[in-house]
Fold each of these.
Amino acid sequence: LKSSIKSIQKDIREFASHSTSDRIKQFVNKEDKITTSNISNRDQSSQLDRLEKYVLTLKTISQKLDAKINFENVDDLLLKARNQVNDGTENPSETIIELKSSIKSIQKDIREFASHSAYDRLKQFVDRQLDRLEKKLDKAKEFGADQNQINKAHELIDEIKALIDKNQINDAKIVFHELHKLLKNIQYSVG
């Protein structure tokens, strides 16, 4: 009887020992997972903070350009990702990837808008300058400038306008230099 009691006590000690050891291992593993999860959540939270600040910058640029870009999808994704990080119930990685993709799309839209806007401003500037030059040519004609040179200048002005309309800016610059030389000749002939 004593030997069976000792055997049972030994089994109980081993069982208790294994149970405690297993419990400790489970607790340590659980702590590692929680720590990793917290680090991951902190990383994702700070990543969301950076993305949110960047979206605010894009909104400011969009407003300054009067680009009228829709940020609803990005705002919804930011909110969804923020809730996922705070709740810890879902992994926000896919939402963050989708958010980054939407932000890239908005960046592209802003660049295109800015490019078109710059082109429009350039076109307006060139048109004003060419109108001013045409008025000077009319005055030069009144002062007796060579009609062939004036006709050639009007042809160059028309060519510049056509090149600008085709967005061939570099070619328009070359023709403009020709026009500039011709205008100097007309100016010298009128005196």
Amino acid sequence: EALAVDAFEAVVRCFGNLTFLYSIAGRLRDLLEIAAEGAKTCQRFGPLLLVASTLVENWVYALVATGRWDEAEELAAELLQQWAAEGMALALHLELAQIAAARGDGASFERQISIIERFARPDDPYALHDVTSARAENLLWQGDADEAYRIARESLGHLADQQDAGLVVSMCSLALRAHADLVTARADRVIR
């Protein structure tokens, strides 16, 4: 119906909500299909990053999560050229940092983090969570479980009073992974 009457807000919200729901449901293939369709439909309303931010954030996330890193990088670069809105730039640069970490590209990771730190507010618990998560993931990929564990625990002190328990649970998960790596590394040294 929204498409039939060309209702800008309804069209954009529908596509954004669908990509969000597919993301939560883990239906990334469906998300990628609806995101491509949504992009074609919504781009006539203006820069996608400005008019359909939920859609594009979920689209880039799904590309990263499905291992389509080159496509995610290309899409993120294209979107950042269209509109460099701070909040969305943060989300896109975080995805690019995660790709760099997974590839073991420390220089690219640090470049993305330095851009992120220009946007991220230190008092924003979501930014704190996301930046710390990216840093901890990178440290884990590099084999530095000690530092990953330390920064995850430190951020938990800042996130402890959050009503959004998802941030705390996610950071606890990272701290646990880092701790497990530490225990495993110690066990390997004992066994050898």
Amino acid sequence: DNNGTSYITVDDHTDFDFTDEITIAMKVILPASGGGFVLCEKVNEYRLQVVDTNTLEFAIYTGGAYSTALTYSYTPDTAFTIVATYKSTSSGQKLYINGSLEDSDSVSGAINNSTGDFCLMATAGGNNIAKSGTSMAYFGLLNAEVNSTWVTNYHSNSLYDTSDGNDEITSISFVGSDTVTPDAELGLFGAY
């Protein structure tokens, strides 16, 4: 669980720059949002965030601005999976929730590459920190667009089981704004 004060920052590195394709995958429980907060962002490249009124947004930065965000209205304090994808040449942005496509568009163009830091649960500098009660069981950042079979399998083979009525999921303890070396063995980033 995030306590509302912790986040992770990774100094700018080319391992977090994507040109044509990206997938962001998370298993989360999100609290009610009285104000926005960021789940994952590389400034002026890609962003997955919560905005007012319990709405999740995913957007790619291309052509000098963030594209119109894909959105999903979530139920607070309920576990769900998020898979956000982008492929510049054919697919545009896609937002899957619990294995189903919720929103998509036909945006195209290369993803901007910036010198900004990668941030998990906040923006650079510790702004827009995830609200207390935000829980994340898994985070994946991939340099390719995954297909619908991958999305279905990701949701079906989730790390949490709510069949007993318990929505608690395994949480990642946040270590604050520490500098993390890409390719370090943290269990946060995986290559697929």
Amino acid sequence: ILRYFLKINNFNILNSLKIRRENMFGFGKNKKGQNIVTKGRHVIHTFDPFKEQTTTNTKESVEIRLQKKAHIGQLKFQRFQYPEGDVNRIVITTDMKKAGASRDMAQFTEIIFNIDETKNLRYKEVWNHFPTGDINSNCFIIEPAEDLKTILNAGNLEVRITTRGNYYVDLSNKEEKRVKKLGKAFYEEVYA
């Protein structure tokens, strides 16, 4: 009797865990009013049925060092589709918890991509958030969409981020290679 009881209860417990896991990660049926989440190999698509917009984010991010290791930024590629348009964005979230971190270094004004030392593509920051807590987010819209392909196909890519107060950060070669690798994975999955 005890064996039968354990077998039935274990089955019920496992099924309840499975249901919670499916709902938590967006698998299975969505409840009414929830966003619809689907996962690809390198990206996560989130559709908001109320706003009729889809946001596609890379699962991974590129860690960038901004100020003598006081600030750490996480760079992600994003596609934002809404009834009025479709844009590619680069979103950088900055952690400012470490002592000695300057708020000016976390408020970006522009990102510049130098393509093969012949052409600069410049994008202004559009969210204009002023850091109030330990985290700040910056967004750059990559328009026209063909520019993203140009950036990712560059033989030699150099990246500079300018910040408030006319400071700037040049990404390391390793960070630039990771930006290209993540961007290519994003592009191939989203536009294939």
